[in-house]
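notes to self, project folder thing:

trying the whole complex as one job this time. last attempt i did each chain seperately and stitching them together was a nightmare. two parts in total, labels are on each line so i dont mix them up again. if this works i'll redo the older ones the same way
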Amino acid sequence: MNKFEEYLRNHRDQLDLPDVHPRVWEQVQQRTQPQRARVYYLYRVAAAAAAILLLLGVFQWGRHSAQPLVIPTAMAQQYDLPNTGIETLITEQINNIQAASVPVSYRDDLQLLLQQVHYLDQQYATQRTSLQTGQYTDDLLHDVLRYYRAKVDLLTRVLSEIEKINHYEKDNHTE
Amino acid sequence: MKNQKTAHSARANTARNLSQRVRQAAKGDQRAIQQLYEQHAPAMLTTAYRITNNLADAEDVIQEGFVRSFQQLRKLQDPAAYSGWLKRIIVNLALQKQRKRRHFAPLGQLDLPAAADDEPAWYQSIPFARIQAAIQDLPNGSREVLSLYLLEGYKHREIAEWLNISVSTSKSQYQYALRLLRQALQSLRHE
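result (full assembly):
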């Protein structure tokens, strides 16, 4: 290698480009951030996560009729619900949510979902009261079945979110 | 002796910090990922640009290169080797991008003066920005060889493999690029 070559090689840092445009990092960051972190607005969580029971003041679940509700099979199929035991199904979902625990940082996100359950209960309160008399029209029954379907879906979603959160937390705190 | 020891321990510390950062990044630590990026991005952009000769292409290359490196970090057996490993990824991507534009001049018609080793260092008065511009003006194939050999420190055997040419072609294209560069810089002296 002659002196000219040596000069170029020894000063190659002086031949560097000055700066990298910030847009490059933005793209890298977007592509390397975990998908779940974006969805759940993840914060740094300490190794020992604080567990809390979810607030269940939103649940005002009680028996809706003197007798367990029996839904005509055709109607039950229309709403993809069991023709008996719908209240038991919902009670089980609520019990599972009550027994669950998530880190404090996720509480607000789940509260939003539970609030929707509360609004749903309020929206259909009249229909539920009418159902308790044991005498109801088909229209009322359709309304109530729509309510049950929506409630089951919401509670299923809450349980699914809890499972995802705890699974994600476990993944990120495993050595 | 003391200076050598200080320099050695500083290098050892730097290597340890890099390894630690790489291990953290492999676990998904976003801060460590950002630190690795900031530490390597400027040099990697330069490496890519030397090959692609186009800033937008070079930015695309390093974006892709960093993302791939972070996605495959767990496979890297020696965290201290991250810098060299990343550079290979970047060089590969840059060369792929250049594949269609690459052309090696037939060297049978070379008629350029060879360098004399004892000539005065006339080139030291030329600003580095102009030297860099002159390098980027070199023909595609020979510029890549000169950049990879002289500035990025790869051997002709590795360069030949990358570019799918013989070692002797790599060496002769390098000499060709060097002579073109000298001619270009010497003409600047007379401006």
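what i see at first glance: Chain A touches chain B at residues 2-5, 7-9, 11-12, 14-21, 23-25, 27-29, 31-34, 172 (CB under 8 Å).
need to look closer tmrw
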